[in-house]
Amino acid sequence: METESDVQAGLWDAELESLLLRVGERFGRVEPRRRMRDYVRGLLGPVGRKNSWQLAEHAGNATPYGLQRLLSWCQWEADEIRDDLQDYVAERLGQPDGVLIIDDTGFLKKGAVSAGVQRQYSGTAGRTENCQIGVFAAYASAKGRALVDRELYLPKSWTEDPDRCRTARIPEDKSFATKPELARAMVRRALDSALPIAWVTADAAYGQEWHFRRMLEEAGVGYVLAVPKSQQVKSPAGGWRIDHVLTGAPAEAWERMSCGNGAKGPRIYDWAATKLPTIEGSDPTHYRWVLARRSLARPEEIAYYLAFAPADVTVSELVRVAGARWAIEECFQAAKNECGLDQYEVRRYVGWYRHITLAMLAHTFLAAMAAHALERGAEETVRAASFPSPWQKSDGSWTLSIPARPGTSHPDTGSTGPAGAATRPEPAIATTSAARTPIG
């Protein structure tokens, strides 16, 4: 007899096969297409450290050379896989109020050969380390969250050294770009994709950048962006530091709200928000806002935000978007722990993009299956609750009715006919488990 676990494993395997067939069309030859499938299945499998050697062993290959060629020399475009990934996320996780989140993460490295590596601050390590920095975009909705784009940050120590770039196979046309400039390019691509994006959020490294905010306003996309306390706020009424604006907020302007759930439950803070003045007589479709988030345990810790939102937006919606920023941290953690995002051993520019893109694809698959499990669990919960309660009240007292079994009759079911007459089925077992099912 087929068990629930067998059914779930079958669903997972069918969905993965469909996804691999979808992206497999980007490979012109059979060999790299087969290697790609081995690589992604290995990233999803029970492999200790997900480098080429151990992924090859998981796939049953005697050497890692085939997978290494996949990342280094085979002809395929990682950006095309990224485009397919964004379409897949739009289909599985997309919702009209979806949020695009921008952040960067570090990849600790030894030596000076890996593309883009140098001693620089890594938020992952919380200090200056020898590392590469990747700027990422994630998509989040009520259905789930997944990484949808990536760019490798190339410091000036690299872009101003043509020989070094040539050795790492960095394209000749690659010039220096700041992290906010990389972020703007990713946001433009996301807005041109099938992803339904209503909002963009990011931390202060991106929120303080005027060009980043201006691009979003010109595109008509709402944002809630963290900024430093020294951020200048300008409006037709004048200009002020954002912390000075919110210092004057009356006590009743602060509201206690949750900005989403964390590992320990709801993230609850005190929030204050106000619209900025507009030109007198104008009737804008969007308004600019300033927000502050105050810690309950340490009231002196206040974070500040600039927002741009439709005229009918509520403060609770702005708070929701601000809280969505943590979703990308969860994506980084899951993609690194589950899919080997940071376990690559490639050094060249092309290899970095290929490994990172395939790891993102594996993580996106897990996110889609978790969303499917939650939806399935909700449907079964509703289905189970739709049966009449066995508690029945008659003549002022309660009676527990016993459901009839198939092939029997019982007066409480209304069935008086012979075996085979209509009877109420046993309730389905409701489940909301999104546990990961192993893939062969």
From TrEMBL:
<dbReference type="InterPro" id="IPR038721">
    <property type="entry name" value="IS701-like_DDE_dom"/>
</dbReference>
<protein>
    <recommendedName>
        <fullName>Transposase IS701-like DDE domain-containing protein</fullName>
    </recommendedName>
</protein>
<dbReference type="Pfam" id="PF13546">
    <property type="entry name" value="DDE_5"/>
</dbReference>
<feature type="domain" description="Transposase IS701-like DDE">
    <location>
        <begin position="25"/>
        <end position="236"/>
    </location>
</feature>
<feature type="region of interest" description="Disordered">
    <location>
        <begin position="386"/>
        <end position="440"/>
    </location>
</feature>
<dbReference type="InterPro" id="IPR012337">
    <property type="entry name" value="RNaseH-like_sf"/>
</dbReference>
<feature type="compositionally biased region" description="Polar residues">
    <location>
        <begin position="430"/>
        <end position="440"/>
    </location>
</feature>
<feature type="compositionally biased region" description="Polar residues">
    <location>
        <begin position="389"/>
        <end position="400"/>
    </location>
</feature>
<dbReference type="InterPro" id="IPR039365">
    <property type="entry name" value="IS701-like"/>
</dbReference>
